[in-house]
Amino acid sequence: MALLEVESLEAGYGKKTVLQGVSLRVDEGEIVSLLGHNGAGKSTTLKTILGLLPARGGRVRFAGEPWASGNPVGNVRRGIALVPQGRGCFPDLSVHENLMLGAYTRVDRAEISRRLDEIFELFPILAERRSQRAGTMSGGQQQMVAVGTALMQHPRLMMLDEPSIGLAPVLVQRVLETAVKVNRRFGTAILLVEQNIRTALEISQRAYVMKSGAVVLEKPAAELLASQDSWWALY
């Protein structure tokens, strides 16, 4: 079942149009990679889906219902979460304070407490350092905080924008394994933007390749992984 359906999406900044009719889908419980060189429009796609950037054209449906262009709070309440580039946490706040900020749309205290326990079970290091300022943690640990904060929203779809950016190579695999853990533990669908192509494809079921604001290729991730040398240089 399609959870997210994007058809001919257009968006941009000022007079500049960046997205030139992007179409993609993410099914329930699926991990999908969105690949492309810098400037292809990947981050703009995620921002437009969340509603941080109003759409100029096209159609988006989430869980079978029309989504609200330019209404990020409404879309968060519907079950869409974005972990942006650059960790996405507040460095001067503690781990616990960051996580609780992610629960701003929730009102049931028992439900919030249960989800907090689930996140601490998923990321034990966060439980150990719940009082530590997020900005004093390692890059990989800050990424866990950012993912945990998004999970406090109980999302059905989590969009990860370059989660491994700025991390040492040894940590890249570990951070992307976090996406797999979230997918398996909560059944959360993942739309992943990532420059580490091979690692992203290894954890995905399907993938889209973007160029100049448009999707130019869609295939099962395993097929793209097997032929990476023959197609990546073309884009």
What is this structure's SSE topology?
Layout (H helix, E strand, L loop, with lengths): L1 E12 L2 E12 L3 E5 L6 H9 L6 E6 L2 E2 L5 H7 L1 E4 L11 H7 L7 H14 L1 H5 L10 H13 L5 E5 L7 H18 L2 E5 L3 H7 L2 E6 L2 E7 H6 L1 H4 L4
Parallel strand pairs: 3-8, 3-9, 6-7, 7-8
Antiparallel strand pairs: 1-2, 1-4, 4-5, 9-10
Helix pairs in contact: 3-6
Q: Please identify, by name, the CATH architecture.
A: 3-Layer(aba) Sandwich
Largest sheet: 6 strands, mixed
CATH topology grouping? Rossmann fold
Number of domains: 1
Give the rounded overall mean pLDDT: 93
Proportion of strand residues = 25-35%
Number of strands: 10
List the strand order in the largest sheet. 6-7-8-3-9-10
Radius of gyration: 17 Å
Helical residues, percent:
25-40%
Q: Please write the string of helix (H) and strand (E) elements.
A: EEEHEEHEHHHHEHEHEEHH
Look at the structure and give the CATH class: Alpha Beta
Low-confidence stretches: none
**General form:** globular
Q: CATH superfamily, called what? A: P-loop containing nucleotide triphosphate hydrolases
Distance between the termini: 30 Å
Structural class: alpha/beta
In a nutshell, what does this entry contain?
With 235 residues, the protein is an alpha/beta fold. It has helices at 42-50, 72-78, 95-101, 109-122, 124-128, 139-151, 169-186, 197-203, 221-226, 228-231; strands at residues 2-13, 16-27, 31-35, 57-62, 65-66, 80-83, 157-161, 189-193, 206-211, 214-220.
